[in-house]
Every structure is written in structure tokens, then in C-alpha cells.
Write a structure and sequence with these properties.
Number of domains: 2
Shape: elongated
Pfam family, one: Phe_tRNA-synt_N
Low-confidence stretches: none
Structural class: alpha+beta
Family: Belongs to the class-II aminoacyl-tRNA synthetase family. Phe-tRNA synthetase alpha subunit type 1 subfamily.
Subunit structure: Tetramer of two alpha and two beta subunits.
Catalytic activity: tRNA(Phe) + L-phenylalanine + ATP = L-phenylalanyl-tRNA(Phe) + AMP + diphosphate + H(+)
Strand content: 15-25%
Order of helices and strands: HHHHHEEHHEHEEHEEEHEHH
GO molecular function, one term: ATP binding
Helix content: 40-55%
Distance between the termini: 83 Å
Mean pLDDT: 86
CATH class of the largest domain: Alpha Beta
């Protein structure tokens, strides 16, 4: 029995010396001391040992177990120490190097401008409403008093998916959908992406964004429209900003107007930014055409309203004095990180 224990101890010593990793060392431990290990097998054979010899043999087995455990523990500590030293050498830090900067993203100029516009109108009691970008021809044109033979359809250079399905050229269809719900009064803005077949240049893009507003209620007049847009301009461009309304034509509003604001660079005196005029055009607006109200199920004799639309990119270009619309979409980090 003593020879067998010495043999087990010697085999374990050889296996420990050959074990190059902690996993291999653990395998040696299991093979020697586990439930099916060599030393356990010896203990199972104790029943065949004479009663008077069992204490002596048991002591020998315990001594052998203690020696094997000590051998395994010592080797484990050496391995762990070697691993720790290697890791420390590998992960050494040069404290003289500059720290790595954490590159944190931020909002796009368009998003900043949109949030500012939404803040202003929500503060005036408006609701932000969204709608589909792929739209029915009826909502995009006909319900806005633009029949199939209307020249405006040619001017907008529409992307047609089929004869009756288009990529929306404006966010006005969202207004029509809200009016059809019949929940009056309405105070809403509809921001979103729109599409027109334009060549890409400094002021045009086939895909851009609009924010259109609509108010429908009893006794709404052009004076309400002027007061709303004047307040909007002051909030967006500064308290000293003035507005000017110029007669215009839109099929879905009557009367209609283009709105200019005093140049926020020169205060209306005239400069390079406003091309010497002192005014900058920002949006179109007007009183909702009675026919548009009728087609949406609203009685124009009882209700009236106004609508307006502004290009989000135009707001961003003006507010941040950007001279090329393409910069907003080129994803140049050098440009975007300025905001």
C-alpha cells in the first residue's frame, strides 16, 4: 500500500510539472483527489485491509493527500503570480501620454433648429403632429385645391411611385388628415421630410424638411396670423425682429402672403447677408381656402383658419449663417462638431 501511495504521489508530481495552465492543474487535482481520483480509489480499498492495519494505512493516505494538496497549491500560486506579472507588463500605462478624449455625439443643426421651433409653437398651445412620407395623390394635391391640371404640380417636380401614390412634396397632407378627423378647434404644426425632384446645389436638395402650421377655429382672421408669425419671429431671431407681409399666391390659401423678417445681422439697415435690402424671406402663409375646408368636411361659414410653412433647413441656414445647404447632409464631423 505504501508503494502504491508513493507511486500516486510521483505521478501527480510529474503531471503538475507538465501542467502549463491553471485549467490543466485543476485537471490534475480532479484526477488525483476527485471522487474518481487515484487517491479516492485507494480509500475505497480500505475495506480489504485488516482492522488493525487500517489506522496506519489511513494515516499514510492522509499524509499523501496533504502532500499532494500542498504541491498543487504551491504550483497554483506560482502560476497565478506569473500570470499577474505578465499582465502587468502587457498593460503598463505610460502616464506621460495625453488622455484619450471621449468622443461624445450631439444634436444635428437641423434637430437643434426643429426643437427650437417646436418649443416656440408648443408654448403657444400648438400640437406637434406627424404623417406618412409616402402619400396619396388626393391628400398631397387635390385636397389642397390643386387639381390634376394645375400648373403647381409641374412646379413641384413630384416623385411619383404610381399614378395615385407620391413622395409627399410638402407636409400639408398632415393638416388635411387632421381636419378630416373633425376634432375642432385645431392648433398644430407638422414637421417632416419632404421630396422634390430638384438638382443638388447650395440651396436645393431632392430631400429636405418642412414645418407647416395650421389653426382652425371660429372667428380666425388674418390679424391672428400676423400676430402669431410676428411672435414666432421675435422668439426665433430676437426681440427686435420685425415682419413684413408681401402678397403672394398659394392654391390652398386665400389671401396668401410671403413673410420677411428684418435682417438679424444688420438690424434692417442693409448688409451682405440680406443683400442690402434689410429683409430676409423666411416663409409662406395665408388664410385657409374655403374650398380646402369644405373638402375636409368643415363648414367655411362657421370656421376659418390660417396656415403657414417654413423650410427647416432655411431656418438652420439663417440662424447659424451657413451658406451651403449641402453641408447639412455631408456628415463632415469638422462641420457638425461646431454645433
Amino acid at each position: 500500500m505504501k508503494d502504491r501511495l508513493e507511486q500516486i504521489k510521483e505521478e501527480v508530481r510529474k503531471q503538475v510539472e507538465a501542467a502549463g495552465t491553471l485549467d490543466k492543474l485543476n485537471e490534475v487535482r480532479v484526477n488525483a483527489l476527485g471522487k474518481k481520483g487515484a487517491l479516492t480509489e485507494v480509500l475505497k480499498g480500505m475495506k480489504n485491509v485488516a482492522a488493525e492495519e487500517r489506522p496506519k494505512i489511513g494515516q499514510m493516505v492522509n499524509d499523501t493527500r496533504t502532500e499532494i494538496e500542498a504541491m498543487l497549491e504551491e504550483t497554483k500560486k506560482k502560476m497565478e503570480s506569473a500570470i499577474r506579472e505578465a499582465k502587468m507588463k502587457e498593460e503598463v500605462i505610460d502616464v506621460t501620454l495625453p488622455a484619450r478624449k471621449n468622443q461624445v455625439g450631439h444634436r444635428h443643426p437641423n434637430t437643434i433648429a426643429l426643437e427650437e421651433v417646436e418649443r416656440i409653437f408648443v408654448g403657444m398651445g400648438y400640437e406637434v403632429v406627424e404623417g406618412p412620407e409616402v402619400e396619396n395623390d388626393y391628400y398631397n394635391f387635390e385636397a389642397l385645391n390643386i387639381p390634376r391640371n394645375h400648373p403647381t404640380r409641374d412646379e413641384q417636380d413630384t416623385f411619383y411611385i404610381s399614378e395615385d401614390i407620391v413622395l409627399r412634396t410638402q407636409t400639408s397632407p398632415v393638416q388635411v388628415r387632421e381636419m378630416e378627423k373633425g376634432k375642432l378647434p385645431i392648433r398644430m404644426i407638422a414637421p417632416g421630410r419632404v421630396f422634390r425632384s430638384d438638382e443638388v446645389d447650395a440651396t436645393h436638395s431632392p430631400s429636405f424638411h418642412q414645418i407647416e402650421g395650421l389653426v382652425i377655429d371660429k372667428n380666425i382672421t388674418f390679424a391672428d396670423l400676423k400676430g402669431t408669425l410676428a411672435e414666432f419671429a421675435r422668439e426665433l431671431f430676437g426681440e427686435e425682429t420685425k415682419v413684413k407681409f408681401r402678397p403672394h399666391h398659394f392654391p390652398f390659401t386665400e389671401p396668401s402672403a410671403e413673410v420677411d423678417v428684418t435682417c438679424f445681422k444688420c438690424g434692417g439697415k442693409g448688409c451682405r447677408f440680406c443683400k442690402g435690402s434689410g429683409w430676409i424671406e423666411i416663409l409662406g402663409c395665408g388664410m385657409v381656402h374655403p374650398r380646402v375646408l369644405q373638402m375636409s368636411g368643415i363648414d367655411p361659414k362657421e370656421y376659418s383658419g390660417f396656415a403657414f410653412g417654413v423650410g427647416l433647413e432655411r431656418i438652420a441656414l439663417l440662424k447659424y449663417e451657413i451658406d451651403d445647404m449641402r453641408l447639412l447632409y455631408e456628415n463632415d464631423v469638422r462641420f457638425l462638431k461646431q454645433f
